[in-house]
Amino acid sequence: xxxxxxxxxxxxxxxxxxxxxxxxxxxxxxxxxxxxxxxxxxxxxxxxxxxxxxxxxxxxx
Length: 61
Hints:
Elements: H1 2-13, H2 23-56
């Protein structure tokens, strides 16, 4: 699962190359990119859970 995440970060956020000079700035950029990716993933999971809750009411038990 880790390889997929890094692949997505490289593809969508330019994570493959260092953009700034200095380790601290590049580390801060990497952390911001990772946080934004985690927030986006969390939002997608939350939306899917809400969708499944709505569908549960339509299922015959």
